[in-house]
Write a structure and sequence with these properties.
CATH class of the largest domain: Alpha Beta
Radius of gyration: 23 Å
Largest sheet: 8 strands, mixed
Oligomer: single chain
Distance between the termini: 53 Å
Number of helices: 11
Strand content: 25-35%
Shape: globular
Bound molecules: zinc ion
Structural class: alpha/beta
Strand order of the largest sheet: 4-3-5-6-7-8-9-13
CATH topology of the largest domain: Rossmann fold
CATH architecture of the largest domain: 3-Layer(aba) Sandwich
């Protein structure tokens, strides 16, 4: 087999630096928010020539966007803004994002690329089940579908009865939605025996973390190949990264977006291949450009280029949020990394618990993992311990328990039990 081509991250960054310099100059000129932020840090635009220089620039966090409500980060005259979207804030005011005509156009272009990468063509009929309105998802997909020349079937969310009817009558070939909604539809299709009446072939799902097992079930019930799409309202919306038929990672669009991976604790830039927090700088955005926006999503920039031949590099599927991070023996661990280990541990199920204690002043981490039915518990535990050492770089205790013994929850299952401060 041919060796995978390596990503030359330094060369990529060199290509992006001209746009970066223009962005910083533009922000200093046109964005009161960023001018103030850069001044406070003692930075003038000439200081930022390279991506390495970016490390000096303070990052932008969600609360600053919220504090600027409604349009404090708008960086163009109002007559250039053609649309706003807003994030669904769980508490307090939402974040309002203004878009220029050019922003809307570039977003549609990136979305069309995503759809094409997943294999969607102008012969497809695409059922769009995310919400429309202030929310970015529905309209973002719609614009990409139209740009590509496929047929949009904009059902929006809910009304499962109608969704299934359209899916059958129109012979929808592509389904777009959240993975939870896809699972619900998949189970309905299965329950009603509609599998032979539908023509789906591709599913594009995003906006939440979903496990390998759930993916398999959706694919099997609907007879589709599924793709993970990534994005966030503050940075256009969905459509800034997607996996390809190789499913080795999510390609992201480097002509419009500069991705850094940083250590979420020290803020230092990390090399490709190392996991950390994704920080995004928008290179082309006009309405509300962002400089070093903290996503709080944990991933890495992959060291290998994809065998599919795309020149666009990839990030790993998001492993979790920095808010879920735990620190053990001076190593940062995200529960999603354990998910990932289990996927690579033969005989292990999907359920686990992490139990942290302190003994004689030292951290002890115990991972309880369910083995699949009929597996030898000790063998699974040993393999899992080996995989954690290899993939996360930490030695922990592992106990394998029989399938079905760990508690299940209909909501978010509690997996981390930190007993160190008790
Ligand atoms: Zn690829």
């Amino acid at each position: 087999m041919e060796a995978a081509k390596k990503l030359d991250l330094a060369a990529l960054y060199r290509q992006q630096e001209e746009k970066l310099r223009q962005l910083v100059a533009r922000l200093y000129e046109d964005s009161p928010f960023y001018r103030e932020k850069l001044r406070a840090a003692g930075i003038v635009p000439e200081d930022i020539r390279t991506v390495a220089d970016l490390e000096k620039v303070p990052m932008t966090d969600k609360h600053e966007l919220r504090d600027a409500y409604p349009l404090g980060l708008m960086a163009v005259p109002e007559e250039e803004v053609v649309r706003i979207h807003s994030s669904s804030g769980t508490t307090g005011k939402p974040i309002i994002v203004p878009y220029t005509r050019n922003d809307v156009e570039i977003w549609a272009e990136m979305m069309a690329r995503c759809l094409a990468m997943a294999g969607v063509t102008n012969r497809d009929r695409v059922q769009i089940t995310p919400g429309y309105g202030l929310w970015t998802a529905g309209i973002g997909f719609q614009a990409g579908v139209e740009k590509l020349g496929a047929m949009a079937v904009p059902t929006g969310p809910g009304n499962t009865e109608k969704q299934l009817e359209m899916m059958v009558d129109l012979g929808t070939t592509v389904l777009i939605g959240t993975s939870s909604y896809a699972l619900l539809l998949a189970e309905e299709v299965q329950r009603r025996g509609l599998r032979d009446k539908i023509k789906l072939r591709i599913g594009i799902f995003g906006s939440e973390r979903w496990g390998e097992k759930m993916r398999r079930r959706i694919e099997e019930y609907l007879g589709i190949e599924s793709f993970d799409i990534y994005g966030l309202t503050e940075v256009y919306g969905p459509g800034i990264a997607i996996d390809c038929p190789q499913h080795k990672g999510l390609h992201f669009w480097t002509d419009h977006l500069l991705f850094e991976i940083i250590d979420p604790v020290t803020g230092k830039q990390l090399p490709s291949g190392q996991q950390g927090e994704l920080v995004i700088t928008t290179l082309s955005k006009e309405g509300m450009p962002l400089l070093r926006y903290r996503t709080h999503d944990i991933t890495c920039i992959k060291e290998e280029l994809c065998p599919c031949g795309s020149p666009f590099p990839m990030i790993e599927r998001v492993l979790g949020r920095t808010d879920d991070m735990i620190k053990v023996k001076a190593v940062n661990i995200y529960p999603g990394q354990i998910d990932d280990v289990l996927k690579h541990t033969p005989g292990a199920g999907s359920e686990y618990q992490i139990i942290l204690t302190r003994e004689n002043g030292r951290d002890r981490m115990l991972v309880k993992v369910e083995a699949e039915a009929g597996e030898n518990l000790e063998r699974v535990a040993a393999e899992c311990r080996k995989q954690i050492k290899a993939r996360i770089g930490i030695t922990v205790d592992v106990e394998a328990v029989p399938a079905g013994t760990l508690p299940r929850s209909e909501k978010k299952t509690k997996r981390v039990f930190d007993l160190r401060d008790l």
